[in-house]
Design goal:
Layout lengths: L15 H28 L4 H9 L18 H14 L1 H20 L2 H13 L4 E4 L15 E5 L2 E12 L6 E7 L8 E7 L5 E3 L13 E12 L3 E2 L5 H37 L1 E2 L2 E2 L4 H29 L5 H26 L10 H11 L6 H13 L5
Helix pairs in contact: 1-3, 3-4, 3-6, 3-7, 4-5, 4-6, 6-7, 6-8, 6-9, 7-8, 8-9, 8-10
C-alpha cells in the first residue's frame, strides 16, 4: 500500500469569499510556513517575516471591521484560518491568535477616535501585539494583579512586571491591564502601550519545552508614561474587558489545538500506510486502525465544538460557556492525539527526524495558556450550577 498524502480538511464555509480565503491561507502555509517550521523551531527562530506577510495579505485583522483595516470575517471563518496556520506551525497560528486578542480591547471598547488613530496600523500596518494580564504572582488569580498605573495630570505612569507574555520583547504594542484603584477586579484599567515607550523592557525569553520559536518573556514597565488617550474603556473596566477578550481568545486556542491535532493525525496516517511490518502496512492492523479512527473522531468533535461556539458569537449570543468547553475539549484532544501519533510512529516518533514529537511538546502548552483547563472546568461548572459558595 502506498503512502497516503494528507487530504485538506473538508470545511463548511459560509461564502465563496471564505473559500478563497482558506485557499490563500493554505498556499501561504504550504509554501511560506511549513517548509522551514521544524528547522526554525529547533533553532528558536521567531518568524517575524511571516507575520509581516500575513499583515500585508490582510490576515492579521480578519474578524475586525474593514473601515479600520480588518476584513469583516465572521469568527467561524477566522478560526478555521487559525487552524490551517497552526497545522503548519503553531508559533504562527498561536501568534495570530494572540495578536487578535491584543487588538480586541481597542477594537471593542476604544473610542471612535482611538480606533481611527491606532487600529489601521495594528490590523494591517505590519505591527504585532502582545496581551499583558498575567504576572509572576497572579496567573489564574488574575484579579490580584499588582502592576499599577498612577494618574499624573493628563498621563498615567505604569509600573510593574507582566509574565508569560507571548511576543514579549518582539511586539510593537502591549495591551496592559494595570491597577488604578481598589484591590480586586473593579480596580483594574486597560491601556494601549507602545513597545518603544521609555521604561518598557523585556527579560530574556523563557526556555520552554515546545514552541521555542515563539518568544515568551516577562515584560517590565518602569515608570512608563502614557497619555490618558491610550486608556481603553472606563477606569475600573479593565478586568471586564480582559475577561471578554479571553472568551474570544479561548476559541482561538481551541482552533490552534485542532490544527496541531490534525497535523499529528496526518503524520500518523501517512506513516502507518507506508510503514511495512510482517509483510504488510501497519495500518492493516486493527489495533492501530482503531487508534487512527479515535484520533479522527475526537478531532472532528473538537472542530464542531469550536465552530458551534463561534457561530453563537457571530450571532451575538452568549458563548462564554461554549468557549470554555471548546478550549477544554480541543486542547485535551490535541494532547491525546499527539501522544497517540508518537505511539503510531514507534521509535521514530520519539526522534526529531519526524514532527510527531514536536507536535506533542507543543500541544501541552495549549492546556495551560489563556486559562488552564482546570479553570475552564470551573467556568463551565459556574454556568451549570452557579458560583461556588464560600
Amino acid at each position: 500500500m502506498p503512502d497516503r498524502a494528507p487530504q485538506p480538511v473538508d470545511r463548511q464555509l459560509p461564502t465563496d469569499e471564505a473559500r478563497d480565503l482558506i485557499s490563500l491561507v493554505r498556499d501561504i502555509a504550504q509554501h511560506e510556513i511549513a517548509p522551514t517550521a521544524a528547522e526554525e523551531e529547533g533553532a528558536g527562530h521567531f518568524p517575524r517575516e511571516v507575520f509581516t506577510l500575513l499583515s500585508r495579505t490582510g490576515l492579521l485583522g480578519l474578524p475586525y471591521a474593514s473601515e479600520h483595516g480588518g476584513a469583516d470575517q465572521p469568527y467561524e471563518v477566522y478560526l478555521q484560518v487559525l487552524e490551517e496556520l497552526a497545522a503548519a506551525r503553531l508559533t504562527v497560528g498561536l501568534g495570530v491568535s494572540v495578536h487578535t486578542l491584543s487588538s480586541y480591547a481597542l477594537a471593542t471598547y476604544g473610542t471612535k477616535e482611538q480606533r481611527v488613530e491606532h487600529l489601521p496600523a495594528m490590523l494591517g500596518g505590519g505591527l504585532l501585539g502582545a496581551y499583558c494580564l498575567s504576572e509572576p504572582s497572579s496567573g489564574s488569580d488574575a484579579a490580584s494583579l499588582r502592576t499599577r498605573a498612577v494618574r499624573e495630570g493628563d498621563d498615567w505612569v505604569i509600573t510593574g512586571t507582566k509574565a508569560w507574555i507571548t511576543h514579549g520583547g518582539v511586539a510593537d504594542f502591549y495591551t496592559v491591564m494595570a491597577r488604578t484603584g481598589e484591590e480586586g477586579p473593579r480596580g483594574i484599567t486597560a491601556f494601549l502601550v507602545p513597545a518603544d515607550a521609555e521604561g518598557v523592557s523585556a527579560a530574556a525569553p523563557e526556555k520552554k519545552m515546545g514552541m521555542k520559536g515563539s518568544p515568551t518573556a516577562q515584560v517590565h514597565f518602569d515608570g512608563v508614561r502614557v497619555p490618558d488617550g491610550r486608556r481603553i474603556g472606563e477606569e475600573g473596566q479593565g478586568f471586564a474587558i480582559a475577561l471578554s477578550a479571553l472568551d474570544s481568545g479561548r476559541l482561538g486556542i481551541a482552533a490552534c489545538a485542532i490544527g496541531v491535532a490534525q497535523a499529528a493525525l496526518d503524520e500518523a496516517v501517512g506513516y502507518a500506510t507506508g510503514r511495512q511490518q510482517f509483510g504488510r502496512p501497519i495500518a492493516d492492523f486493527q489495533g492501530l486502525r482503531f487508534m487512527l479512527a479515535d484520533m479522527a473522531t475526537q478531532i472532528e468533535a473538537g472542530r464542531a465544538l469550536y465552530l458551534a461556539a463561534a457561530r453563537l458569537r457571530d450571532a451575538g449570543r452568549p458563548f462564554a460557556k461554549q468557549a470554555a468547553m471548546a478550549k477544554l475539549h480541543c486542547t485535551d484532544t490535541a494532547m491525546k492525539v499527539t501522544i497517540d501519533a508518537v505511539q503510531v510512529l514507534g521509535g521514530y516518533g520519539y526522534t526529531a527526524d519526524f514532527p510527531a514529537e514536536r507536535y506533542m511538546r507543543e500541544a501541552k502548552v495549549l492546556q495551560i495558556v489563556e486559562g488552564t483547563n482546570q479553570i475552564q472546568r470551573m467556568v463551565i461548572a459556574r454556568h451549570l450550577a452557579g458560583p461556588e459558595t464560600r
